[in-house]
Design brief:
Layout: H1 10-24, E1 34-35, E2 42-43, H2 51-59, H3 64-74, E3 79-83, H4 89-97, E4 102-106, H5 110-121, E5 129-132, E6 135-136, E7 141-146, E8 157-159, E9 166-172, E10 184-189, H6 195-200, H7 203-207, E11 211-217, H8 220-226, H9 232-239, E12 242-248, E13 251-256
Parallel strand pairs: 3-4, 3-10, 4-5, 6-9, 10-11
Antiparallel strand pairs: 1-2, 7-8, 7-9, 11-13, 12-13
């Protein structure tokens, strides 16, 4: 444990990190894993050049507001669908917070997928997290996926055209993957622009109000390149009977009305 983990409240810890540690960017060592603040577990594998991963390593968390919300919901139990799971930060929090919890974790980037698998394998009960090595979208098939720069794990995303940095990934609809007798406690979506498509692929689940809590983002630059309107996801959810509220810069929370 580094010295920051002894600092409370955690918002002060985060402030010190950004004003001191993040600026000088010191080297990181993984001595037995990285402790998490919002769950009694560690992450075994992080990319130390990655912006978010470095904050997890130093602070034990990132996206503080979202972490608080998801860890609180995790204590109630249920299924988390983690779309754009990255290295599994939210999946690990969910699985470690309640022994009855389950996770469907989706990560299409091969580079990040290996870290996700390593972190899940290190949990006490890794079988409660089901890993899907593909993307979710509005239609099943295959699409081009830009894996992003090597030093960052979360900048990859679906694109409309191939390039030297793209690969083909399998795309599924969430409606086709959730058994009819199961509800989704939390749907967390972070796909660098394609969040709207993920929601469109869950139309039946949403219409039946089988998704209880939704967290998603709006990456406006990526959305424009994909031909997605800035408020398209919000309008879509409202039309299906959900209330949508912003809770951060381009971050949204939705629940059934």
């Amino acid at each position: 444990m580094n010295f920051l983990h002894r600092i409370y409240p955690v918002w002060l810890r985060e402030k010190i990190y950004f004003h001191l540690i993040a600026r000088i960017n010191p080297a990181l060592k993984n001595s037995g894993g990285f402790d998490l603040e919002f769950a009694p577990t560690k992450m075994a594998a992080l990319l130390t050049t990655d912006y978010g991963h470095r904050q997890i390593a130093w602070c034990g968390f990132y996206e503080l507001d979202l972490s608080r919300r998801i860890s609180s919901l995790a204590k109630r139990g249920g299924l988390l669908v983690d779309v754009g799971a990255n290295a599994g930060y939210f999946s690990c929090i969910w699985a470690a917070s309640n022994p009855a919890n389950e996770v469907y974790a989706f990560e299409p980037s091969p580079r990040t997928l290996s870290m996700l698998r390593e972190n899940v394998s290190a949990l006490d009960n890794p079988k409660r997290i089901n890993i899907f090595d593909g993307a979710l979208g509005k239609e099943s098939g295959t699409l081009d996926f830009d894996v992003g720069p090597e030093e960052q794990s979360s900048w990859g995303g679906l694109v409309n055209s191939a390039s030297a940095r793209t690969i083909q990934v399998k795309v599924s609809r969430l409606d086709d993957l959730i058994p009819p007798d199961i509800n989704v406690s939390v749907l967390k979506v972070d796909t660098e622009g394609a969040d709207t498509w993920v929601l469109m692929g869950a139309k039946n689940l949403l219409r039946q109000k089988r998704i209880k809590h939704i967290f998603f983002e709006a990456n406006l630059d990526r959305m424009e390149k994909l031909g997605i309107q800035p408020d398209e996801a919000e309008r879509y959810l409202v039309n299906l009977g959900y209330k949508v509220c912003p809770f951060g810069p381009q971050e949204f929370y939705a629940t059934p009305v």
